[in-house]
Amino acid sequence: MTTQEFLISAPARGDRVLLGPPGPVPSAAGRFGEFGGRFVPETLIPALEELEAEFRTAWSSEPFRSEFAGLLESYAGRPTPVTECHRLSDRLGVRLLLKREDLTHTGSHKINNVLGQALLARRMGKQRVIAETGAGQHGVATATAAALFGLDCVVFMGAVDVERQALNVFRMELLGAKVVSVSSGSATLKDAINDALRDWVATVESTHYCIGSVVGPHPYPWIVREFQRVVGEEAREQSRVILGGNDPDVVVACVGGGSNAIGTFAGFLDTRSRLVGVEAGGLGLESGKHGAALARGVPGVLHGARSLYLQDEHGQILEAHSISAGLDYPGVGPEHAELAASGRAEYHIATDEEALSGLVLLSQMEGIVPALEPAHAIGWLAREVGKKVPLGSTVVVTLSGRGDKDAEQVAQRLGAELNK
Amino acid sequence: MNLEKELRAKRDAGRKLLVPYVTGGLGGRWTDVVRAVADAGADAIEVGIPFSDPVMDGATIQEASQRALEIGATPAGIISQLETIDVHVPLVVMTYYNPVAHAGHERFANALKASGVDGAIVPDLPLDELGDWAVAADAADIETVLLAAPNTTDERLAAICARSRGFVYGVALMGVTGERDHLTKQAGAMGARCKAATDRPVLLGVGISNASQAVEAASSADGVIVGSALVRRLLDGGGPDEAAAFVAELRAGLDQSIG
To answer: What is the ipTM of this complex?
Structure first.
């Protein structure tokens, strides 16, 4: 086939939002294998029990599911298309499809989860929502949903991230949210979660904590996965249309806490596709400056869940490093830890440099500027074709968000180079 | 020493119990602070083993933890220094679950026992997740103190009181540790509910900031835990003398309250 023939294929966009049946429920104690659980101060136990009961009822109720699906469709702009990357496919020697979460309202997959959680908050009669944010994408999404539902919204954000994501801070404030800059600890996502938890311990009776990733105490990793599984359900059906009824050989997504990856994987768990999560390699694993909890973490407990965390020999949590604020987290969701342990998914890394080159590659070959987070998935793929990814493979990459938020940071890193 | 036995005996003798909290590893003289506080009228002492991510703690104890970690405090180091503290009251460590799990349940419990520690408080290890730690702690004769919160249901409160060892830690407000201007109404209610649910000593903690608040809180319970107000004095440059003076003030208030 020539490139010309490729160009006439329109993006595959299903008729309607594909909300598949509910996925597997974790064990009663909220465990995925040995990971997960509910390691929180006693004050939060009643709220987590209430949330679990509410979600259990809501998620099997047709009215709730149709309201959620309706919001995803009319407000978030779902289904998002799957776009075939013809030029980049030719360049790399694979057949590359992108699941376009960057095209949702607010520009990342985070909107899927917050719309679901805002519905839950309303069901529970909670008038205030709090959230943590790293890159600002989840904060913006939460502020958006709060505006839509008329809820008060406070977003906790590490001081370092407030600096490097100034545009998103303004967006949240514009949407009516209050942004609290967190300067304790490493002043990044981990510390923002700490402060959100501290706020919640004091306000739990009137406040819903809208966690943005598949982390935290049970039932959050389960709830967030279920609200994100629409990404994978859609991607599976859309890619089958493009691939003549076949599933892709490889499915790739970036992993910080892991919500876009778990949502993507949820749609492909029962297929024969290889599932690949790409963690932040930062300055390289040997440098110690990275966010690769699956590659270098050890079992531990943070933010309410047993999972894999970067920590020192005394059990103190280490600061992560990544060029991308959204992957700058020293842990990973418990279900990913279990998928790694069972071998159903494999996890690799891409460094800051590889993410940057992935970002440039996709921008210049396809006219799509990805966020730095999914640029790790592109960078990994570009490195691994012919190695971990055989030539000629069909590959779906979830493009979890668009790159606008990173423009300034990327300009600082690459501006001079691009002008040469 | 047996924590619960000691506290029961003092309570039954009509005394209001006072348990000050000191961040382990905070400055070179922290063990002297523990000794001074013991001599100033503490009935047991809670020693914090700093953790990088203390979600149940407010600004004061966060800062103390961070400072201690920055100057090299480690769980093993603090536990071994505790061995050198020869005080006449029980010692209870307060830490988060990750350092415990990282060290290994049995190893951590045995190390505590070897250093003469009697109890442990792990605020992010609720009843439902107690499992393996409780087995190891019981085997090593380390009393695990459980926390109850103002929003804990009656049914759950009963289970917490039944499983707690040493005493029951009633959280006096909805929130994290730190000084407050006033005692909330929740404090009295928490004390009364815990007292109705158990015969074990009931101590209220979180937010109790001075002698008058201590007296007020202790009127509904068997005593109080005072942390941030003491640790702030240490962060502000105070040493054993300032710590002892503050604890003596709390002690005097509590003693006067029972006439």
So the answer is: 0.96
